[in-house]
Design brief:
There is one protein chain. The chain is α+β, with helices and mostly antiparallel strands. The chain has one domain: Thymidylate Synthase, Chain A, CATH 3.30.572. Helices cover about 30% and strands about 20% of the residues. The chain is built from eight helices and eight strands. It has a six-stranded mixed beta sheet. Strand 4 and strand 5 form a beta hairpin. Helix 1 packs across helix 8 and helix 2 packs across helix 7.
């Protein structure tokens, strides 16, 4: 994960100061790419402890198309607790609005809903299942994309999708996944994004009987929040450790990723990170 740390250093050294809707400024660069070979290990940050259990819980939430954040909170994942469907509670930065946003459980048609039902019940399209089916029938296809960005539904989403599209590419034996992000919190968000899409790549590869290979990240507005700078400087002092191994458990004939349970059906072996470093999320 040294390339992740190199990206952090680049932003701290060269980022432009920008204001944004959260009220917490960022240091931002335009454009970044990272590429990981999963045959070398599972790409999870080792210079601080990552919230891998919550990351895997969120992934199951997306795969199954859920939109009620209570499901996440019941399983100990607080990633979405501060947001909600803006048609239920319009976004605001004052404390009363933040409280109401925390109390409202509906997130609207966020990522998984669009993966599984792009048109939101109007001529539904299950993009995720279509992608898996296409990989089985036509593995060299260059049109296997899954999009979470539907302009007609943005006003209903707790947050407009940051990682708005992913693409699957195969040579018939090995499977690659690339994902694009329009906006990326590099301190808190990117390590979870990388681990989550790496796990998704492994899950899909398992179902289509391929070897997971390259994970590629493309970011556009790639930024560090100014209240994360000290924490990231501390992290840069730490030498990355050996990457762990991720194992997906599937003990069922004709197993599908929809059968996967994030609470029981995976193991992360030889993960020995440095202690956690606290960073506050910008809402």
């Amino acid at each position: 994960m040294k390339q992740y740390l190199d990206l952090v250093k680049n932003i701290l050294d060269n980022g432009e100061l920008k204001q944004n809707r959260t009220g917490v400024d960022t240091l931002s660069i335009t454009g970044a790419m990272l590429k990981f070979d999963l045959r070398d290990g599972f790409p999870i940050i080792t210079t601080r402890k990552a919230p891998i259990k919550s990351t895997m819980t969120e992934l199951e939430f997306f795969i199954k198309g859920y939109t009620d954040k209570q499901w996440l909170e019941d399983r100990g994942c607080k990633f979405w607790s501060d947001w909600c469907n803006p048609q239920k509670v319009p976004y605001g930065n004052d404390e009363d609005t933040k409280r109401k946003m925390r109390e409202e459980k509906d997130l609207g048609p966020v990522y998984g809903k669009l993966w599984n039902n792009f048109n939101n019940d109007n001529n539904p399209i299950n993009q995720l299942q279509n992608a898996i089916d296409t990989l089985k029938k036509d593995p060299f296809n260059r049109r296997i994309l899954v999009s979470a960005y539907n302009p007609t539904l943005l006003s209903q989403q707790a947050l407009p999708p940051c990682h708005y599209v992913f693409q699957l590419l195969s040579n018939g034996k090995e499977l690659d996944l690339s994902f694009n992000m329009r906006s990326n919190d590099v301190g808190l968000g990117l390590p979870a994004n990388i681990a989550e899409y790496a796990a998704l790549l492994i899950l899909i590869a398992t179902q289509v009987n391929m070897i997971p290979r390259y994970l590629v990240y493309f970011g556009t507005d790639v930024h560090v929040y100014v209240n994360h700078i000290d924490a990231l400087k501390e992290q840069l002092k730490r030498e990355p450790k050996k990457l762990p191994k991720m194992t997906i458990i599937c003990n069922k004939e004709n197993w599908s990723i929809y059968d996967w349970n994030s609470q029981t059906d995976w193991r992360l072996e030889e993960y020995n990170p440095y202690p956690a470093i606290k960073m506050e999320v910008a809402v």
